[in-house]
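Slide 14.
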Amino acid sequence: MPDHGAKSLLHASTPRGRDIDAVIFDLDGTLVDSEPNYFEALRKVLAEHRVDFTLECNRRYVGIGVKEVVDHVKAVYAIDEAAAVMMERINAYYIDFAKKNTPVFPEMKKLVAELKKHDYPLAVASGSSRSIIEMILSTADMEPYFDVVISSEEVGKGKPEPDVFLEAAKRLGILPERCLVIEDSQYGVLAAKSAAMHCIAMPGSFDESMQAHYAMADLLFKNGIHDFSAEQVLKWVRTDCLAV
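Slide 15: predicted structure.
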């Protein structure tokens, strides 16, 4: 349940500085440390097809919806199993792993609590299935914070297309340009900016090939969650501070 006992990072009397009326969070790798679970689930399914799937192979899929990942690996590795069946098996393995270990990043929990305390509408927009999103949020006691939960499976296309963020804004009743997206993946940043939204990025991994996409973010924590600060984000939201 929400913990309002911590010292407030925003003052109730402080006006909002930027034109941000709502905040949309990615789930995996942003709110919760769940990317390793997806890797293990995908690796396990592909191993059953005699594919040696490594962490290096997985890097290209971080931030992409499960449907898009399955479509791609089927083509790359010439797998004839039906996409829907593969997705079900990946999700089943993922749930097994997630129930054992899916911690919420402490700075993210602090940020969510402060934003909610100051009446920002909040959403989760993820490439995971809706049932998985709801299970993760429930297990982590994060469900009460969010007004909208949406899976890319509910819209036309997953990230890097903007559909899931645009639908989140629509359900929140907020104009896209007045929404802030918090993302860890290059594809999520591209989706957010394609939706004309503000974006804060905290890369799960970063190399020169990703620089162009991450450079689109309005605020970048280049070293990811290790550098991420709820207090700095809140300061950025309400002031004209452009960098950390």
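Speaker note: The radius of gyration is 18 Å.
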